[in-house]
Amino acid sequence: MITMKLESKAPMGPVGQKWSKYKQDMKLVNPANKRKFDVIVVGSGLAGASASASLAELGYNVKCFCFQDSPRRAHSIAAQGGINAAKNYRNDGDSVYRLFYDTIKGGDFRAREANVHRLAEVSVNIIDQCVAQGVPFAREYGGLLDNRSFGGAQVSRTFYARGQTGQQLLLGAYQALSRQIGLGTVKMYPRTEMLDVVLVNGEAKGIIVRDLITGEISSHSGDAVVLATGGYGNVFYLSTNAIGCNVTATFRAYKKGALFANPCYTQIHPTCIPVTGDHQSKLTLMSESLRNDGRVWVPKKSGDTRLPQDIPEDERDYYLERKYPSYGNLAPRDIASRAAKEACDNGLGVGPGGRGVYLDFAASIKRLGEDKIRERYGNLFDMYERITGENAYKRPMRIYPAVHYTMGGLWVDYNLMSNIPGLFVLGEANFSDHGANRLGASALMQGLADGYFVLPYTLSNHFASTKQNKPSTDAPEFKEAEEGVKERINKLLSIKGKRTVNDFHRELGKLVWDKCGMARNEAGLKEALERIPQLREEFWEDVNVLGDAEELNPALERAGRVADFMEFAELLCLDALHRKESCGGHFREEYQEEDGEAKRDDENFSYVAAWEYKGVDDTPELHKESLVYEEVKMTQRSYK
Amino acid sequence: MSEKTMNLTLRVWRQKNAKSDGKFVEYNAEGISEDMSFLEMLDVVNEGLTAKGEDPIAFDHDCREGICGMCSLTIDGKAHGPLQATTTCQLHMRSFNDGDFITIEPWRASSFPVIKDLVVDRSAFDRIIQVGGFVSVSTGGAPDGNALPVPKADSDVAMDGAQCIGCGACVAACKNASAMLFVAAKVGHLGLLPQGQAERDQRVLKMVAQMDEEGFGNCTNTTSCSAVCPKEIGQDFIARMNRDYAKAVFRSK
Q: Are A420 and A2 in contact (CB under 8 A)?
């Protein structure tokens, strides 16, 4: 049975000792018995690949699924800037506690303390592990590892590999996974999409997948199901996510009873390349690390059409440095994003449509030389030039915020298990570590922490403390789920309406961005909640998906994902409407300080909002996990 | 930025599946903005085809920011199109002119069979990594990251190779459909680092054997692979792999 009392199940005791205590007390599975357990892992990004490899190394049988043509392509690969770890190699005062505190504070006091402390603890092991795998982190001339600074921290704790840190970490995990595939301990299923999770006696025991080349629908059963399927940023249509990123796996789990927590915590990244037109299919991030050496400004005068280099210093407003002198250009993402929006709303924006601000490297180039800047960010400057046709060594970049990451996700306890026994959720797909706002260089840290160093322990504990009985895929639950999946596919193909999937997705995305984007208010959210069900109805009546079910059919894949976004968007807006406070990535215009800063309401909203599905047209039920801060005192976040 | 639009004629390879024969089909792409990426231009064409009830063109793509390695396309005979160091998703239409006639094909290599239209099967690359493209280190027990200093110069060159995105352009550009650059990039990356030394000989022997097993051609030093590589991985990696291979063969006798 699904229990609805939300307990974090974190061990008792001081926060700094909880994880040690957990490891001391946990139950183990002996090596000879491990091979009797089958684990299904969905997703092959940092979390999925590291979990699959680590579990297989321990002796479990792993099946790993991804929709891309190779596990090497998951969107973790696009992370640019770096990965945090409390190594204190700089001797600048860093520690596990400080990383823990920065992450809690950065998350605007809406994360679970015990999880975050564990994350900070294992951060140091991640760097060691990746170095041992041959990840070519940046080094100093003495041969030791280099660091850079990132937003929301006053120490340099970010490890990096040029502007391609995510790529190098993912390839490290991919290689560890490939080694296990070669050894036969992991069976890999690329170009395979999970379309449902199967529960037997209330426990997660398998999944239904579609082979994207042949269209074949099949069932896979296991002793546990691990979802490492990323975030839901593509509900906004335009985001920095890859085109294929989707909410389907977690949303199907939600429809089977898993609770969806804090969907309204969405992160808008301050430094992305501005939109150029309706044809735009995605937005491209310019790494936050650029804010180490770039200065953000807008002209002081509205409607100033001069070229940036012609605007004298005293007619520029370096607004982040002015408003947040101690953090300056490295203010956290939510704050930097809103400040950019505010500048543009005031008519000070630059570039086509006035939705852009400058990120200027002139001062750093003068101080360090162009070569040094090229060494640090060369690939980003090249990427900027390819997309915009402009040379950022000569003129400032134009940037604007865009949807980047989603802190919300399926609710999990300290074991990373959802409220459905046997269903584990890792990485961006869960809600657990970043509260209402994620700090830069912490997503890579969390994905790898979950996969390499948390799940291998908590899954063993789960297997050792429960009786396992893996059902056959002939069980009626599997047959029923397969039928449901086939029915839905046939429905999508039979509508033959007038509008394309893309067209619907664009409309949905624009609506959600306008009403539930960087700033939200009650009236707008209510409008969205009225419009989304209508749009969903139109979708199911008028979408046009060509081709067959039994072939490679990208439009059909897309249609299924957009259909889920059509339902998920409503949950997102509902959560945003219910949370009558501003915190982190969730900014409600009604709840702000006089100076425009977010106004939190700890008395009424210091809880995790976990939603239970009740039916497509019914309001989901809210469950609360109250956030008890034993170690840290909740304060108003100040970066001034 | 002034928004310029253009009209183009596309000649696109259409093939229903791996078993059927393919052919070129002509399409008009109209009102294309110079700010669009090449793939966004294809999106526009596909929207038009869907509206007319014609099967849209299948092509691989995902991140659309030049790093996942999923997009492919041979454009006017050149893998990833006319720009240096640029994947198809990062190629923008300002590189083309109004009235252009553009030929779009899948990667052509027998080790990359066509799945549909412009989509090919590159799983051979995964199998090459699976036989040895890694350091055999299991999770846990790694020494401190700073316990093993790595000279910056070595680390930088290793990173040059590690940047490979596994897109397969090197194979598509090679008249022999050789995968030497792909394999050499990984052999070089790991072989340059102290962590990779223990398995250095075995790694190169196994990866080259698998490369041959997959049916990739031999290298005849035409260097076309490096010319199209989006990450500009150089010929020195191939030279290094040849040296490593020779040494490994000698030592394993």
A: yes
Q: Based on the fold, state whether residues A425 and A530 are members of the same structural domain.
A: no
Q: In terms of domains, do A393 and A500 share one?
A: no
Tell me, yes or no, whether A106 lies in a domain. yes
> Which of the listed residues A465, A486, A503 is the one where a domain comes to its end?
A465
Tokens read off for B22: 């393919």
> What confidence tier does A153 reach under pLDDT thresholds 50, 70, 90?
confident
Q: What is the pLDDT of residues B183-208, one digit of tens each?
A: 999 999 999 999 999 999 999 999 99
Residue range A413-418: mean pLDDT, rounded: 98
Q: How do residues A252-272 score in pLDDT, each as one tens digit? A: 999 999 999 999 999 999 999
With beta carbons less than 8 A apart as the criterion, state whether A116 and A103 touch.
Answer: yes
- Residue A420 and residue A444 in one domain: yes
Q: For A187-199, what is the mean pLDDT?
A: 98
A100: CATH: 3.50.50.60
CA distance B64 to chain A (A): 7
Q: Provide the terminal-to-terminal Cα distance of chain A, rounded to the nearest Å.
A: 49
Instruction: Give the containing element (helix H, strand E) for B105.
Output: strand B101-105
Please tell me which residue of chain A has the smallest CA distance to B191: A134
**Which residues are A187's β-sheet partners?**
A63
Domain ranges of chain B: 5-115, 123-252
- pLDDT beyond 90 at A406: yes
Looking at domain B5-115, its CATH superfamily turns out to be Beta-grasp domain (3.10.20.30)
Whole-complex ipTM: 0.98
Kindly give, in sequence order, each residue whose CB lies less than 8 Å from that of residue A511, ignoring residues fewer than 6 positions away: A528, A531, A532, A535, A569
For A505-563, write each residue's pLDDT tens digit: 999 999 999 999 999 999 999 999 999 999 999 999 999 999 999 999 999 999 999 99
Counting every residue, how long is chain A?
640
Q: Say which residue, A162 or A449, is predicted with more confidence.
A: A449
**A186, containing H or E segment:** strand A186-189
Residue of B nearest to A389 (CA): B94
CA distance A351 to chain B (A): 8
- A433 and A460 part of one domain: yes
CA separation for the pair A362, A359 (Å, rounded):
9
- Looking at the fold, whether A382 and A352 belong to one and the same domain comes out as yes
A333 is annotated as an active-site residue: yes
Domain co-membership, A460 together with A521: no
**How big is the A-B interface in CB pairs under 8 Å?**
227
Q: pLDDT-derived band of residue A208, with 50, 70 and 90 as boundaries?
A: very high
Q: Determine contact, residues B135/B196, Cβ cutoff 8 Å.
A: yes
Chain A environment of B92 (Cβ under 8 Å)? 386-387, 389
Catalytic residue among A210, A252, A291, A333: A333
Of A136, A243, A281, which is closest to B162 when you measure between CB atoms?
A136
**Which CA distances in Å does B62 have to A72, A266, A282, A286?**
12, 21, 10, 18
Give residue A151's domain range. Answer: 15-265+407-465
Superfamily in which the B123-252 domain is placed by CATH: Alpha-helical ferredoxin (1.10.1060.10)
Contact B44, A280 (CB under 8 A): no
Number of domains in chain A: 3
Q: Among all residues of chain B, which has the CA nearest to that of A54? A: B139
Inform me whether the C-beta atom of residue A305 falls under 8 Å from chain B C-beta atoms. Answer: no
Percent of chain B with pLDDT over 70: 99
Q: State whether A171 and A288 are in the same domain.
A: no
Q: Are residues A108 and A231 in the same domain?
A: yes
